[in-house]
Amino acid sequence: MRDRGTVTRVLGGPAAADYHAAMANSAPPSGPTPHAPAPAAPLPGLLWLFAACNFVIGTGAFGMTGYLGPVADGLGVSVGAAGQTMTVYALANAVLAPLLMAFTARWPRARVMQGALGLFAFGTLLGAAAPNLTVLMVGRVLMGAGAVFTPVAAGLAVQLAAPEQRGRALSRTFLGMSLSYVLGMPYGAWVGLQWGWRCCTSRASSS
Asked: What would the pLDDT profile of 65-110 be if each residue is shown by its tens digit?
């Protein structure tokens, strides 16, 4: 570094002052060097289980759209009447899921999710063994109520993740539901058309 007196003689007063100020601003800080941010903690592995359960729920709930024809033939009803099972599921989920969440608000979340999965599986089995459309509708209502697992799992995923990772936790939890639309529904349609709609419905419950 040049001597301050030499710089002052060469540049003159104002220019030398500007030079010294610039050098002072470019000097490294005298305090401690800030540490690099700590790496983010990994997301809980339990979220993969939530995603898998959502995949099964989405496939079991919406896979029937691909084999409504065999359902109608097996129950002796029109395709339009068989399609009402999708409407019944959606209405049951919209009405019963919020009520169940409110009713079980003080229950342990693990107990609520286990009960929801059990309810969904029972409704799926009931639908697979349905002798008529009415019983199938009842099974779809139970499936819609059991799908309360999805919002409960989402709330638990947010609690398990660090604040800065809650977005990633939710995306991983809902990954299974998204994949059920892309992979589960075509697979369900193929199974239903190849081996019968009852086989496909029972497979969803056994999963």
From this structure: 888 888 999 899 999 999 999 999 999 999 999 999 999 999 999 9
Q: So what's the pLDDT on residue 11?
A: 40
pLDDT for 118-170, tens place per residue?
999 999 999 989 999 999 999 999 999 999 999 999 999 999 888 889 999 99
* DSSP states along the chain: ---HHHHHHHH-HHHHHHHHHHHHHHSPPSSPPPPPPPPPPPPPTHHHHHHHHHHHHHHHHHGGGGGHHHHHHHHT--HHHHHHHHHHHHHHHHHHHHHHHHHTTTS-HHHHHHHHHHHHHHHHHHHHT-SSHHHHHHHHHHHHHHTTHHHHHHHHHHHHS-GGGHHHHHHHHTHHHHHIIIIIHHHHHHHHHHH-HHHHHHHHHH-
Angle 15-21-22 from CA coordinates, rounded to 5°: 90
Rg (Cα) of the chain, in Å, rounded? 31
Considering only CA atoms, which of 135, 144, 139 is closest in space to residue 90? 144
Residue pointed to by tokens 């401690």: 32
- Token representation of residue 63: 């896979």
Q: Is the pLDDT of residue 25 over 60?
A: no
pTM above 0.85, yes or no: no
Distance of CA 56 to the CA centre of its chain: 12
